[in-house]
């Protein structure tokens, strides 16, 4: 028992990457090049340089008001940078293949669950094909029998799963997640994190998760980017094998490093 | 089975009070507590109803009044709905027309009766104009409110998913505005009857209001009371119809889910 603890401790000082098979980096998914964004003369983001490769899972964290959501809105094409440019890789020609998931599910209350998922296929598929794809993706998020329900009868976690299905049904190359689990209770949240990891491993899209929850960031991401007053303050790889176990000592190690940076300890 | 019976019992409950009132009224009339020249007994009103029904006079007057009410409703409703949509969707259109419309809205439309009689005489146009004007505002205001009240987060979601303007309107904006539009519809139906009755009482040569005024001239108080009861029934009918439409088109709304 004691021996095991000691080995575990040693693995902190010895680089953890020893047990980690780093995945080959794919092509560039998108790249922020010296991007700045101002709202009414106030700089929200400045000098952002960020290259993200296809299939990477990046978490962006920071205190509220640090500009992390703005970064995501730029990525999704909801806002335009004031200066600098955002380049999409060859696999992603435009914003069409970028989907964004918000803290609120934003489901249409007047459309049944399956119809809500089909919204994700607007301009891509129609009719029976859309219906079939919608039901398939609902099964993947574990809601195969709820397609005929109104959103109002679902729980918060289920609604967020419908929103995830809607975002994924069109096979996005980039999925931008704006604190999608922020409004869920702690247990549902862990469940959703595992679901998200499983689906990301299966579908191999590029994921950008904005969160204020450091535990969530290190549990899910390959790479954590800390933003502080509009600038990138830390860019840290999380070389931990998947599937990851919650509250494992390796994750705690990275979590501490990030928290130290956030609070300048 | 027992559920259906229960449902029936519930809807019958609303008719209990009118039935008790009628019975009390009949009793009081028979006992001589209410003089017949003040308020005739329900049985006397029933007799008048049969007489007018057999002569065909009643049906004809109801037909004419309903036709007037609905035509005015369609005209005023259509204009109100279109302007509500236009002003809800376009800031330019709103800035251009809303101030004017809000000024006109504050004039009681029945105050225009003298002017309307001078313009149109006592022809059909006069009644159509008044009903259309009365119906216009509740539909306009509530359509506009409904569209302005649509959750902007949903609209943004629709845009992100690449909905065209038409799709956005049909799938997000219109369904979102519908509950408020129905509120306007129900208000408008009430105003529709009110306006028509007033217009027909003042200037008409046919219709329910005219029938009531004629009866007053000849002191046929049972016919006057009958007209009033028919107004109540027609109003209730229009409201039930609106509620029925509301129930089928707002199934998604938690307030209308009967599970």
TrEMBL record, chain A:
Keyword field: ATP-binding, Cell membrane, Membrane, Nucleotide-binding, Translocase, Transport
Cited InterPro entries: AAA+_ATPase, ABC_transporter-like_ATP-bd, ABC_transporter-like_CS, ABC_transporter_ATP-bind, P-loop_NTPase
Record GO terms (molecular function): ATP binding; ATP hydrolysis activity
Pfam families with a match to the protein in the record: ABC_tran (PF00005)
Residue ranges annotated for the ABC transporter domain, each copy included: 30-254
UniProt key word Transport: yes
SMART domains the UniProt entry points to: AAA (SM00382)
Family classification: Belongs to the ABC transporter superfamily.
Protein name per its UniProtKB record: Aliphatic sulfonate ABC transporter ATP-binding protein
Origin species: Phyllobacterium brassicacearum
TrEMBL record, chain B:
Keyword match Manganese: no
Signal peptide annotation: none
Membrane topology: Multi-pass membrane protein
GO cellular component terms, A-Z: plasma membrane
TM stretches of this protein: 70-92, 104-122, 128-147, 191-211, 218-234
Annotated GO biological process: alkanesulfonate transmembrane transport
PANTHER family on file: ALIPHATIC SULFONATES TRANSPORT PERMEASE PROTEIN SSUC-RELATED, ALKANE SULFONATE ABC TRANSPORTER-RELATED, MEMBRANE SUBUNIT
Record's function text: Probably part of an ABC transporter complex. Probably responsible for the translocation of the substrate across the membrane.
Name of the protein in its database record: ABC transporter permease
Organism: Phyllobacterium brassicacearum
């Amino acid at each position: 028992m004691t021996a095991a603890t000691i080995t575990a401790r040693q693995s902190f000082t010895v680089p953890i990457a020893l047990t980690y098979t780093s995945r080959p980096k794919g092509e560039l998914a998108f790249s922020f090049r010296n991007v700045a964004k101002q709202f009414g003369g106030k700089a929200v983001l400045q000098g952002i340089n960020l290259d993200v490769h296809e299939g990477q899972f990046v978490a962006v964290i920071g205190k509220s008001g640090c500009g992390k959501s703005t970064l995501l809105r730029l990525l999704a094409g909801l806002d335009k940078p004031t200066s600098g440019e955002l380049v999409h890789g060859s696999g992603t020609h435009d914003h069409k293949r970028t989907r964004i998931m918000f803290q609120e599910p934003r489901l249409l209350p007047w459309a049944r669950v399956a119809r809500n998922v089909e919204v994700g296929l607007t301009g891509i598929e129609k009719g029976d094909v859309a219906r079939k794809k919608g039901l398939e993706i609902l099964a993947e998020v574990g809601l195969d029998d709820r397609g005929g329900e109104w959103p109002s009868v679902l729980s918060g976690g289920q609604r967020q799963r419908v929103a995830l299905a809607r975002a994924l049904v069109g096979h996005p190359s980039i999925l931008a997640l704006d604190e999608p689990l922020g409004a869920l209770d702690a247990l549902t949240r862990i469940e959703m994190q595992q679901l998200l990891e499983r689906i990301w491993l299966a579908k191999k899209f590029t994921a950008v998760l904005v969160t204020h929850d450091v535990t969530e960031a290190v549990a899910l991401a390959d790479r954590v980017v800390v933003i502080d007053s509009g600038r990138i303050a830390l860019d840290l790889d999380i070389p931990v094998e998947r599937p990851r176990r919650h509250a494992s000592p390796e994750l705690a190690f990275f979590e501490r490093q990030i928290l130290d940076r956030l609070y300048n300890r | 089975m027992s559920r259906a019976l229960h449902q029936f019992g519930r809807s019958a409950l609303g008719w209990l009070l009118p039935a008790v009132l009628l019975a009390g009224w009949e009793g009081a009339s028979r006992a001589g507590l209410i003089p017949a020249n003040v308020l005739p007994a329900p049985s006397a009103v029933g007799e008048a109803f049969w007489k007018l029904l057999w002569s065909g006079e009643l049906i004809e007057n109801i037909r004419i009044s309903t036709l007037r009410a609905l035509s005015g409703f369609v005209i005023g409703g259509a204009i109100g709905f279109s302007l509500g949509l236009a002003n809800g969707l376009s800031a330019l259109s709103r800035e251009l027309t809303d101030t004017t419309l809000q000024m006109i809205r504050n004039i009681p439309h029945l105050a225009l009766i003298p002017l309307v009689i001078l313009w149109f005489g006592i022809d059909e146009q006069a009644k159509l104009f008044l009903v259309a004007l009365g119906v216009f505002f509740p539909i306009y205001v509530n359509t506009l409110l409904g569209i302005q009240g649509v959750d902007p987060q949903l609209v943004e979601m629709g845009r992100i998913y690449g909905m065209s303007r038409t799709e956005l309107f049909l799938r997000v904006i219109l369904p979102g505005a519908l509950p408020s539009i129905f509120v306007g519809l129900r208000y408008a139906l009430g105003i529709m009857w009110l306006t028509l009755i007033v217009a027909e009482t003042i200037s008409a040569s046919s219709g329910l209001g005219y029938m009531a005024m004629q009866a007053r001239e000849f002191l046929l108080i049972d016919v006057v009371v009958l007209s009033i009861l028919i107004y109540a029934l027609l109003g209730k009918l229009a409201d039930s119809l609106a509620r029925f439409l509301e129930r089928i088109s707002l199934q998604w709304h938690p307030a209308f889910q009967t599970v």
